[in-house]
């Protein structure tokens, strides 16, 4: 992400109005806009795959699964972003006219070369402070690897689990959900990041 206008400081209201008419999505951080970079075909496929797998979970009745185009309020009046996939269950978030998810239960980011450091670092440090968030999932688009951060109930502590084999079962017990790792990557041809670097050179 690149700051699109460092001299201008936007209010949340101005940001929302701009996003309604902008062809480019922006994140808002401390009043500054950051244009979001485009993704790869695999990024898009993995995002849609995860969203579909979550949406087909019987236990998610009464919740909503949203991908890419819905903002999350990470810090009130301070940080608004577009995660790749979000699961929300609060009635306020599920209103048809709503533009911002304020109480996400699950956030999923598909890792790319340009976002991996932030998704694992600064963005994760902000996400983990959301009281409503129970799970944070990182989906690697270069290798069949899933990282899942799970909040320990009634605490601010998190457990990190790694899934690298097709038969690994990704379990989100607080939402009564299970997904096989292979179902996320099935039929998607992965390209190691090193190959992408050589092709871009």
Automatic annotation (TrEMBL):
**What InterPro entries does the record point to?**
Nuclease_put_TT1808, Restrct_endonuc-II-like, Uma2
| Ranges of residues in domain Putative restriction endonuclease | 12-173
Extract one GO molecular function annotation from the record. Answer: endonuclease activity
Tell me the keywords, alphabetical order: Endonuclease, Hydrolase, Nuclease
Coiled coil spans: none
The transmembrane residues are none
- Name listed for the protein in its UniProt record: Uma2 family endonuclease
Source organism of this protein record: Larkinella knui
């Amino acid at each position: 992400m690149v700051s699109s206008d460092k001299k201008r400081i936007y209010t949340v209201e101005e940001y929302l109005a701009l996003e309604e008419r902008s062809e480019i999505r922006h994140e808002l951080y401390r009043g500054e806009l950051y244009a979001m970079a485009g993704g790869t075909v695999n990024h898009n496929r993995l995002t849609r795959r995860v969203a579909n797998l979550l949406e087909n979970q019987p236990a998610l009745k009464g919740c909503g699964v949203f991908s890419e185009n819905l903002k999350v309020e990470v810090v009130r009046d301070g940080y608004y972003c577009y995660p790749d996939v979000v699961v929300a269950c609060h009635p306020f978030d599920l209103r048809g006219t709503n533009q911002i998810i304020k109480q996400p239960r699950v956030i999923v980011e598909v890792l790319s070369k340009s976002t991996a450091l932030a998704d694992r670092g600064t963005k994760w440090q902000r996400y983990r402070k959301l009281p409503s968030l129970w799970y944070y999932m990182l989906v690697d688009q270069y290798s069949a690897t899933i990282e899942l951060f799970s909040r320990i109930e009634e605490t601010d502590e998190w457990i990190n689990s790694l899934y690298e084999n097709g038969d690994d079962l990704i379990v989100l017990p607080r939402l009564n959900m299970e997904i096989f790792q292979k179902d996320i990557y099935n039929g998607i041809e992965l390209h190691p990041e090193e190959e992408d670097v050589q092709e871009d050179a």
